[in-house]
Specification:
Chain lengths: 317, 317
């Protein structure tokens, strides 16, 4: 046992709740992972967070806990209400901090948008340490972002900044869940990538993707495509190169608008390999205004999936 | 004669140089307008600025001049270099302040991006007075922008922020001058609107546009389409409603990314009538994320074409 203060960092995702026990130096001494159960509604999600945090607390080397930080999907306003997170049923506006505080009355609870927490983690501990201004992108099930300006999180007037997934890259494109058309997420998010992969597998029966999905097309998800690409599968690389190029279209618009040069890509798909980071970078550089081109850089997250936990813990460390 | 200090505000546009003599209270006591002559290169543009400023100075009610402020197109970096302004030939990176200071050695000269100066003018004197956070859009020959956060100009790390005209709204769209594809400016800027109008006029021979262009299709420019729409011409309204809807696609991406709600539209096309402002607003509201929708507002500039002069003068007032 130690008397060092630990923080609980909860990375609430559309599919999984990941909780870590984080030391003040940023070391994750324990972490777990549970399903989010978003299709069962908010109460079920609170229950999963409770299970995940309880599990982490039983593994704490210290009883000295500084609090629970939560990175949540969707907009988190200045009052801590989490609004309309994608893929969680019947969740319109929930004061998530209050809800979780009721389950852990002795602990301080702070909530921030998951992409924002990951951006903070990247700025403090990761690929953003050298860069005072950057856009952080989470590319996994969906596409989210967080903006760091002059080493600080830019939350926007009401905390919603960084929602780059619903930038339209084709005004006439397919309708997105959000109501817009041609959102970049509708092209490079889970649903599209899985469908496109399933379609292409018909003419690529030898692809490693099929093997990783155990022959079951409904099992295809970004993690599997990313893994296959990482292992050198040509089809997976082709699909992710295309997707990275499209993601770059949206990022170029953000670079132009905000006068930024650096994008840091996190989330499951950022781990597919350097080729996908290069595909995004080439696309951004080709599409931004000329004065920005020489300084455009797209970097891979150095924290990987830990960025969410680290940034969330950072809210209460 | 008065001893009050006046500022010279120069609005350097792609087609015209407009210079105003501005009193400290924001009143423009004199203004003129000369062709930019951008196709003749930088030296010719300096000469036009000289003519325009000289003319303004001869009309000054006071010999007490605080300096010359210039709003210039293109990126203006932190050292005052104006980089790659569109539609000016052979202009890569020019220290415009130094060049003009050589022509007026006794006067202080300050340079800022034209859209940024107009945004400042709008925040101080115009439609932005009530709104601490907004995106200002210049919609005329091209599409530019300036971002006001917490009542201050957001210049970005190197002064290039607000370049929204080259946000792609169709990744597969027509190639733009800038090298990107499907830029919103390539859909709603002068070239496209003029071509589209000329094309549509073939089946609308009675349109007021043709009358204002004196029957000459090559004379069609945004000012004429705007004027015709203002006078109730159905074709002009149809074309600008379509364009406003497309402009809204790009603005929605900026609202989502930066967590903004307010857009203020200036430039020649903003004066076509309330219908075009409403078309932009409907498009933005339909396309932003749900939490932003109720607060989305698109406002018309209150300063109109004077925003450029007022903001430029503001740099030295």
């Amino acid at each position: 046992m130690t008397t060092e203060k630990f923080a609980v960092g909860v990375d609430l995702g559309a599919t999984t709740v990941k909780t870590g026990l984080v030391a003040p130096n940023g070391a994750i001494v324990y972490q777990n992972k549970f399903p989010t159960n978003g299709w069962l509604g908010p109460q079920a999600v609170f229950a999963q967070i409770k299970i995940s945090v309880d599990d982490a607390l039983t593994h704490s080397p210290s009883t000295n806990i500084s609090g629970i930080g939560i990175g949540a999907p969707g907009v988190v306003d200045n009052e801590g209400s989490v609004k309309s997170p994608p893929n969680i049923k019947d969740w319109h506006s929930v004061r998530l901090g209050n809800e979780i505080h009721q389950l852990f009355p002795t602990l301080r609870v702070e909530v921030e948008n998951d992409a924002n927490t990951a951006a903070i983690a990247e700025a403090k501990f990761g690929a953003g340490k050298q860069h005072p201004n950057f856009l952080f992108v989470i590319w996994g099930t969906g596409v989210g972002g967080g903006i760091i300006l002059d080493k600080h999180l830019y939350r926007g007037p009401s905390g919603g900044a960084g929602e780059i997934g619903h930038i339209s890259v084709d005004f006439n494109g397919p309708e997105c869940n959000c109501g817009n058309r041609g959102c970049v997420e509708a092209y490079v998010g889970q649903r599209y990538l899985s469908n496109r992969t399933a379609q292409k597998l018909q003419s690529h029966p030898g692809s490693k993707i099929l093997q990783l999905a155990e022959g079951n097309l409904t099992k295809i998800e970004p993690r599997i495509i990313s893994q296959a690409a990482h292992d050198g599968d040509a089809l997976a690389r082709e699909i992710l190169t295309e997707a990275g190029t499209l993601l770059g279209v949206a990022l170029a618009g953000v670079m132009n608008t905000m006068d930024l040069r650096i994008s840091i890509i996190g989330g499951g798909l950022s781990e597919a390999g350097d080729f996908v980071i290069r595909a995004i970078e080439e696309s951004v550089r080709a599409r931004v205004l000329k004065p920005l081109q020489p300084e455009i850089r797209v970097l891979q997250s150095l924290l990987g999936n830990n960025a969410g936990i680290l940034g969330a813990a950072g809210l209460v460390l």
